[in-house]
Amino acid sequence: MARSFLQAVATEEVAPPLRVVQMEGVAVLKVIKHCKEFSPALVTGQLLGLDVGSVLEVTNCFPFPIREEDDENEADGANYQLEMMRCLREVNVDNNTVGWYQSTLLGSYQTVELIETFMNYQENIRRCVCIIYDPSRSNHGVLALKALKLTDSFMDLYRHNNFTGEKLREKKLSWVDIFEEIPIKVSNSALISAFMTELEPDSPVLQCDLDRLKLTTAPFMERNLEFLIECMDDLSSEQNKFQYYYRNLSRQQSQQQTWLQKRRTENMARKAAGEEPLPEEDPSNSIFKPIPEPSRLDSYLITNQVANYCNQINGAAGQSFCRLYLTKALHEK
């Protein structure tokens, strides 16, 4: 059955959900090289590739220049991106923006700035991701590379800037529903795979395998615990804000009840005297002005960050126990 043009357009607009981020090996190496060169400073860069069905292909990338603290000229950064993409197009390299990458320190990336960057990208790109690379975790023999995107329900709520408790309960949005992690698949062409096979050493043990056997995890655990304590302090401050809000709300409701009781008593006296009753609500009175509820976005992000630090501590502690038991068994032999 033949379809009309409008039906065809409407069908094409329904895109399948993003299932996997497929990164070329050269793009992964560029991201790692850029982040490690400037570590512990945080850097960022542009991701280039193609959006094919449920797969987002990242074929290339380029770094953004590091801006000085007193440099507020954003036009230079935009011109740099356009010039880089024009040069890549001239040499027949994919120049379609599919997101950006950034480095992080011990997984401390869940911030309002990251959400705002996502929203800015979403205005021009239908689907985009952020590749997070953590050099500090990768030093322990783990490729700390992950792809993130915002959930659709959270983006809809963020556009309306309504993070009250009532709205969050209505949308059934919890702190785990802000970011969605997309699996990353590293792919290489057959020629590169064959070349890498030729470069493989005769020994099956690589340096990253030896890094996993290091017993010194104290600095990593200490930094995670320090960051975790800071997040708990921030979370406590956020809870104090809500406690202050609910105390003021309870006080206002008590004042409203007292005022209404007084007004009703006065109206009963006026009715008995044959006079018109007064309205039971007075908008000009300060006790009837609604108290703005604090946004729960910051507390949600801090809770996400606390969970991330706890998972990192749990994983590092579990691996340390495994290495200790392995070392003990080898020592007894």
Automatic annotation (TrEMBL):
Xref: InterPro entries: eIF3h, eIF3h_C, JAMM/MPN+_dom, JAMM_MPN+_peptidase_M67A, MPN
Residue ranges of every copy of the MPN domain listed in the record: 21-154
GO molecular function terms listed in the Swiss-Prot or TrEMBL record: metallopeptidase activity; translation initiation factor activity
Region of interest (Disordered), residue spans: 262-290
One Pfam short name: JAB
Xref: Gene3D superfamilies: Cytidine Deaminase, domain 2
Subcellular location: Cytoplasm
Keyword Phosphoprotein found: no
Chief site of localization: cytoplasm
GO BP annotations listed: formation of cytoplasmic translation initiation complex
A GO-annotated cellular component: eukaryotic 48S preinitiation complex
Family, per entry: Belongs to the eIF-3 subunit H family.
Free-text function comment from the UniProt entry: Component of the eukaryotic translation initiation factor 3 (eIF-3) complex, which is involved in protein synthesis of a specialized repertoire of mRNAs and, together with other initiation factors, stimulates binding of mRNA and methionyl-tRNAi to the 40S ribosome. The eIF-3 complex specifically targets and initiates translation of a subset of mRNAs involved in cell proliferation.
Subunit annotation: Component of the eukaryotic translation initiation factor 3 (eIF-3) complex.
Name of the protein: Eukaryotic translation initiation factor 3 subunit H
Organism: Apostasia shenzhenica
The organism's taxonomic lineage, starting at the top: Eukaryota, Viridiplantae, Streptophyta, Embryophyta, Tracheophyta
